[in-house]
Amino acid sequence: MDTVTLTIDGRPITVQKGKTVLQAALEAGISVPYYCYHPGISIDGSCRVCVVKIEKMPKLQTSCSTTCTDGMVVMTRDPEVVEARAGVFEFLLVNHPLDCPVCDKGGECPLQDFSYTFGPAESRMDFPRRVFDGEGVKADVDFGPTLMLNRNRCILCTRCVRFMKEIDADAQINIVDRGYGSEIATFQEQGVHTLISGNLMDVCPVGAITTRDYRFKSRPWDNPGVVDTICTLCSKGCNTSAWLKAKPEWARGSRLIRMTPRFNPDVNNYWMCDIGRFDYHWVEGETRLRRPMMRRGTALEPAAWHDVEPRLRDRIQEVVTADPTAVRFLVSAHASNEELFVVKQLVEGLLGADGIKAVSMTWTRSEKPQPAGTKFKVPATDAPNVNGARDLGYDVGQGNDGLPDLTALRTAVEGGRVKAVYVIDPGPQGSIGDVSWLIEARRNGTLPLLIVQGVVTTPLTDAADFVLPGAAYVEKDALYTNDQGRVQAASSAIAPPGEALEDWQILVNVARALGLTLPYTSSSDVRRALAAAMPGGPYADADKIGFAQPLPASSWLQASNPSERWKWDFFFQDLPPVKGHSVQTEGSAQALFIPLKPVG
Amino acid sequence: MSFHPRMEYAPAKFHKSERTLAEQGGDFKYTPENQAKFDENVTHYPPEQRKSAILFALYLAQGQQGYLTAAAMQHVAQQIGCTAAEVEDVVTYYTMFYRTPVGKYVINVCRTLSCALLGAERVTEELSAALGIKPGETDPTGTFTLVEVECLGACDRAPVVMVNDEWHERLAPEQSAKLIADIRTKGAAAFTGCHLNKEAQQGAGARGTGDRGKGDRT
Ligand code: SF4
Ligand code: SF4
Ligand code: FES
Ligand code: FES
Q1: Quick one: pLDDT at residue A551?
Q2: Which residue of A has its CA nearest to B90?
Q3: Within its chain, how far is the Cα of B123 from the centroid?
Q4: Cα–Cα distance, A454 to A471 (Å, whole number)
């Protein structure tokens, strides 16, 4: 790797060739403000707050657009820089409303932070602010189905414009007018329509673009819990952070408050799609299954686990004793590797060595409407673990590229040859695909026994004889194998609701009731067994995967939400406040600045 | 529009922006002549830089119907191979693209430094008074539109106005009303045009810096 060595604020710093001065400074933990620069999109050099002094250069330079060269001597705290920078901030705030307390970005806003740190204490501009769509709430206008826009807050960094052009490959956002009248807009105010619109909230360094889903629902300091996990709503497996709102146990409302992407250059870069970002409400929604249920006559009634298990055992054993081939399993590819591993042991114990043949995998597929050139393609497969199922020996047909083939199972069920179907469906409503034939077969009696282990109430659970409440993807530590074959960890952020259990636990309990001992008392036990059973491959280290640990990011640049994570990690360590204009000129002030590295 | 069966999007028309939008306008299509001109013009650029033809494409569209409607912008976008938003970006940037119908004569008064120092503001006032309209407006007969613009690049002959594509140099505020009257009677012949063009026509070596423009300082 070619490197160059330069000096920033008297410190020799060695970076990869081609990096910019700003990147070098940030990597070294030297705080330089920036707005138009975003590591995931092209360089613009328009906001000017990143100015630094470079020896032998006639004027101050924008560090975001200056490439490091050997022997360069950079100063970021020179009085000349400090003054110029403060001037830029004074201009940025000429029209920006100073009402952070009522802005949705307040508390996690780079404009707020950097202005406190680098801006002037007071503005000399005392004329009225330019107002676009009205003041206060009138300024928040529609920006498409998922977003709102507040032009008064916009600092015209053009990150959103470049994001749409470069990442979405459909330049829907533009700047209309010029100079003082410039405003961010969409053609004829049609708004932003894209599957990856939520990222615009992340890239916007101010409160100009907010998501309808999250805006004014919570404040950063109300969300102390952030769990690093992955999204399991399609086969991409974006690395994400699940944000939890602090609230007492008894208070109403959900704890899961938003999902944001987490940087992983090999999977999702800095981005995630709107499905993964906004489709989490079902986890704590009304339709969640909270208690086991059992059919008594025509009614499905809540029951306790210890009542359900023996009844379930009797019914299954009855079928198995008569004809072991009459028991079938229908498993959603939303099941994790742990769950699939336990299912495999369960069927082998119950039905013999090739018991796995009794299991059919299922998932859905939908081509997403996206521009041809998009840099963030959302896969068609709406399940996270088709590859994991294949690796574990399940029949997934063409796998990620195709649809599951359930015709054999369907024919057998409809022909009355199957006497019991055990469905495992930890995915959201509909993710198991079309099961109307199964519901019909149970309703008309062709199928005498239907067991559903799931997370939400669906027509399928309504038709079932036993309903076993499992855990959703944010409620368990689990491994999924994405479309690249990468084994990734989803972490437990919240506990399963009510009496629901983690799915591996339900399976182990059912197995025990059936007289099979599976020696697992935690999901990590399962992973240990999985690693031992599949040495040498991507699962060999399954037992060593860490959960809910921040990725070993070596700099702020590597955290996806540059304005957010690092700060709250520190916030809760009760560091002394570091805001104030004067510190930056003092040579010894270095220590007072928050180091720009995420903890861990 | 929803991308996902389980995602509920809020109704998109909830808080409306107050931005002035271009009128949608009826179907817009280049006339065959304009299409031919456009097709010829894009060949001036490498295929991957087809977008470079955008200003020409917009002038064609504006020439065809006098101003640019949203439909015209969409047509240009489709011709150029970019999004309508990118076209709107360009259209709104330049003062010489109109999003509302304009008069037969569009009077652009420069208000940048040199012109401002030599009375451009008063020129605007005088023109305004003579026409009975404010800057940005078109008179009821649809003959004149008055616009204030930035530097027209003829600072040495300030104050300058540009009427359609023609300069009129050294327009003293007092003569503004007369200019309007002249346009009404003489049409385009009322404009001084660019002195450099005239000098070039007279074959004078007037482009040398020393005596440049001396002669007509009256
Ligand atoms: S809306 Fe946000 S991202 Fe877009 S230009 Fe304005 S400040 Fe930048
Ligand atoms: S692309 Fe797939 S994995 Fe990523 S956020 Fe969207 S649904 Fe989740
Ligand atoms: S970050 Fe360098 S100019 Fe904006
Ligand atoms: S200042 Fe008026 S033409 Fe340049």
Answers
A1: 35
A2: A176
A3: 19
A4: 8
CB-based contact A133:B20 (threshold 8 Å): no
My answer on whether B55 and B127 are in the same domain is: no
Cβ contact B84–A187 (<8 Å) = yes
Q: What is the tens place of the pLDDT at every residue in A531-543?
A: 999 988 889 888 8
Quick one: B140 and B160 in the same domain?
A: yes
Query: What local confidence, expressed as pLDDT, does residue B13 receive?
Result: 55
Closest CB to A144: pick one of B12, B19, B70: B12
Domain with B139 in it? 105-202
The closest of A77, A38, A71 to A57, measured between CA atoms, is A71
Q: What SS3 state is found at A294?
A: strand
Ligand 1 centroid vs A36 CA: distance in angstroms? 9
Distance in angstroms (rounded) separating the CA atoms of residues B44 and B66: 25
Mutate to test the interface with B, among A133, A135, A138, A142 (most CBs of B within 10 A): A142
Give the CATH number for residue B68: 1.10.10.1590
- In this structure, are B118 and B50 located in the same domain? no
Complex prediction ipTM: 0.83
Q: Is the pLDDT of residue B205 over 70?
A: no
Residue of B nearest to A142 (CA): B15
DSSP annotation of B4: S
Q: Is the pLDDT of residue B53 over 80?
A: yes
Tens digit of each residue's pLDDT (9 = 90 or more) over A122-163: 888 888 888 998 888 889 999 988 999 999 999 999 999 999
B143 & B112 share domain: yes
Q: Which two tokens stand for residue A161?
A: 């414009």
Please name every residue paired with A381 in a beta bridge, in sequence order, or none if there are none. Answer: A365
Mean pLDDT over B187-205 rounds to 77
Please count the helices (runs of H) and the strands (runs of E) in chain A. 15, 22
Q: Does B78 touch chain A (CB under 8 A)?
A: no
Facing residue for B6 by CB, picked from A185, A279, A369: A279
The domain that holds B129 is classified in CATH as: 3.40.30.10
The answer, yes or no, to whether any atom of ligand 2 lies below 6 A from the CB of A275, is: yes
- Residue A573 near residue A567, CB atoms below 8 Å: no
Adjacent-strand bridge partners of A67? A20
Return the amino acid letter for A118.
F
Low-confidence ranges of chain A (pLDDT < 70): 224, 248-249, 399-400, 548-600
In a domain, B15, yes or no: no
Looking at the fold, whether B75 and B154 belong to one and the same domain comes out as: no
**Do B65 and B126 sit in the same domain of this protein?**
no
Q: Which is nearest to B100 in space by CA: B161, B31, B24, B164?
A: B24
Q: Looking at the structure, tell me whether residues B61 and B141 fall in a common domain.
A: no
- Whether the CB-CB separation of A382 and A431 falls below 8 Å is answered with yes
Instruction: Give the H/E segment covering residue A351.
Output: helix A337-351
> Pick from B46, B62, B93: which residue ends a domain?
B93
Asked if residue B17 belongs to a domain, the reply is no
- Beta-strand ranges (E) seen in chain B are 105-110, 144-149, 161-163, 166-168
Q: Is B62 inside a domain boundary?
A: yes
